[in-house]
């Protein structure tokens, strides 16, 4: 087992889990965690949910309490940006001019919220992005009852913000360029389900159109978004949720292989044997469908952290976990497992046209490859197993609410 210093760049979900996994795996050498935010590793999902609502404080977001890092001898350097990676000298440079030498380096740099390329929006104090605690602390005071909220982007984050907006009594409009909500991450049936629920909750949804500009107001603020279809959306506050750009520049500048994410193998190794990369910043082999894929989820960040720690501590095991994801909107608990990319049949369980609970299964050659489950934790637990086993099931039993899903597991 290596005992020389391990440096982790990025103190987010993946970086935080990596330092813990290294200690769990028995690594005894020095561990340093460098992060440019002022916080210890924290969980981002509540940022667009409970934390934005003001229901939970910052301390609840922390992955682990401060004493964990002391107890496990993890040196934390927070509020420090790594500006350069010198692979020959195995050294990283910090923005305060300092440097650190590593035996093994783990890049866990996550990503930036994708920006609108609009100078007025860039400068406007009422146009917001949601990636960090600081972003939410800027946004929250603007979410006052009766204000008009324009959400640009109908993906998970945008829709969670829309749900919080409605809960807080704002008038909410969602603008989505694709012809349906959640187009990148869910199948058409769940898109339609979610569309219905948001409409029932009073959200004005504009699909198939983009924002082409903004109407200026006082103090550099914008007062409306101008859409490509010629309409405008009045706005006191704008939230942009149009995806993530991986922070892979450090790796690219150091000559590592980068392709919209740092390219790693199934052990999270880059092309440099001393450097690993994990989390949102990576592009990695997809065990499910082959090819390379970038995933943005807590499950992926945490699993890659464990995979990298195992490889570093000479107990390599390839990343083979089935991806899963969750999103909370109003009372809906949306859960997905597997990647609904390659299927020849969908099976709906429950009704998509009414109510708040349903599931959609994606099958290939009669075997379950992916599932999206709304507000049924028990069905989701079973769906995970059906997907993991690629269970062969009779579609009519899958669709039958009278057949518990767990029975399909045992009758395989
Ligand atoms: C609002 C929101 C809601 C979400 N909801 C869900 C959800 O419901 N379910 C789910 O599964 N996932 C959700 N996600 C996604 C999930 O949070 C991410 O997939 C996860 O945080 C990725 O972890 P990471 O460590 O790779 O990246 P991050 O958590 O982004 O951490 C990377 C860290 O590295 C720092 N960093 C980058 N470059 C440097 C540098 N050069 N020097 C020093 N530090 C650096 C960054 O500032 C950041 O702190 C959500 C994300 C957001 C933003």
TrEMBL record:
<keyword id="KW-0285">Flavoprotein</keyword>
<keyword id="KW-0560">Oxidoreductase</keyword>
<feature type="domain" description="Reductase C-terminal">
    <location>
        <begin position="324"/>
        <end position="409"/>
    </location>
</feature>
<feature type="domain" description="FAD/NAD(P)-binding">
    <location>
        <begin position="5"/>
        <end position="305"/>
    </location>
</feature>
<dbReference type="GO" id="GO:0016651">
    <property type="term" value="F:oxidoreductase activity, acting on NAD(P)H"/>
</dbReference>
<dbReference type="InterPro" id="IPR023753">
    <property type="entry name" value="FAD/NAD-binding_dom"/>
</dbReference>
<dbReference type="Pfam" id="PF07992">
    <property type="entry name" value="Pyr_redox_2"/>
</dbReference>
<dbReference type="InterPro" id="IPR016156">
    <property type="entry name" value="FAD/NAD-linked_Rdtase_dimer_sf"/>
</dbReference>
<dbReference type="InterPro" id="IPR050446">
    <property type="entry name" value="FAD-oxidoreductase/Apoptosis"/>
</dbReference>
<dbReference type="InterPro" id="IPR028202">
    <property type="entry name" value="Reductase_C"/>
</dbReference>
<dbReference type="GO" id="GO:0005737">
    <property type="term" value="C:cytoplasm"/>
</dbReference>
<protein>
    <submittedName>
        <fullName>FAD-dependent oxidoreductase</fullName>
    </submittedName>
</protein>
<dbReference type="Pfam" id="PF14759">
    <property type="entry name" value="Reductase_C"/>
</dbReference>
<keyword id="KW-0274">FAD</keyword>
<dbReference type="InterPro" id="IPR036188">
    <property type="entry name" value="FAD/NAD-bd_sf"/>
</dbReference>
């Amino acid at each position: 087992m290596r005992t020389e210093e391990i440096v982790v760049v990025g103190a987010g979900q993946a970086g935080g889990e990596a330092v813990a996994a290294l200690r769990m795996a028995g690594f005894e050498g020095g561990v340093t965690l460098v992060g440019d935010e002022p916080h210890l590793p924290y969980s981002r999902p509540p940022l667009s949910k409970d934390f934005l609502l003001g229901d939970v404080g910052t301390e609840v977001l922390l992955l682990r309490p401060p004493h964990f890092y002391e107890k496990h001898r993890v040196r934390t350097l927070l509020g420090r940006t790594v500006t350069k990676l010198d692979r020959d000298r195995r050294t990283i440079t910090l923005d305060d001019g300092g440097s650190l030498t590593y035996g093994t380096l783990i890049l866990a740099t996550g990503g930036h919220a994708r920006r609108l390329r609009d100078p007025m929006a860039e400068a406007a104090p009422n146009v917001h992005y949601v990636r960090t605690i600081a972003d939410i602390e800027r946004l929250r005071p603007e979410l006052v009852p009766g204000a008009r909220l324009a959400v640009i982007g109908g993906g998970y984050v945008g829709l969670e913000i829309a749900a919080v907006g409605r809960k807080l009594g704002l008038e909410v409009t969602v603008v989505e360029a694709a012809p349906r909500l959640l187009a990148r991450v869910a199948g058409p049936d769940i898109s339609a389900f979610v569309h219905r629920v948001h409409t029932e909750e009073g959200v004005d949804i504009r699909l198939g159109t983009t924002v082409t500009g903004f109407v200026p107001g006082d103090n550099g603020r914008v007062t409306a978004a101008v859409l490509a279809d010629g309409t405008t959306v009045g706005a006191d506050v704008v939230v942009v949720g149009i995806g993530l750009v991986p922070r892979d520049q450090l790796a690219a500048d150091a000559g590592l292989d980068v392709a919209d994410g740092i390219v790693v193998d199934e052990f999270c190794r880059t092309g440099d044997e001393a450097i690993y990369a994990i989390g949102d910043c990576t592009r990695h082999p997809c065990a499910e469908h082959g090819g390379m894929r970038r995933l943005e989820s807590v499950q992926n960040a945490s699993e890659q952290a464990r995979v990298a720690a195992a490889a570093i501590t000479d107990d390599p095991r390839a990343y083979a976990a089935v991806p899963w994801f969750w999103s909370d909107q109003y009372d809906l608990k949306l859960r997905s497992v597997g990647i609904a990319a390659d299927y020849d049949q969908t099976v709906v369980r429950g009704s998509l046209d009414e109510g708040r609970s349903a599931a959609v299964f994606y099958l290939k050659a009669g075997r379950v490859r992916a599932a999206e489950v709304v507000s049924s934790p028990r069905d989701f637990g079973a769906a995970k197993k059906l997907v993991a086993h690629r269970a062969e099931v009779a579609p009519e039993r899958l669709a039958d609410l009278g057949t518990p899903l767990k029975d399909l597991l045992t009758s395989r």
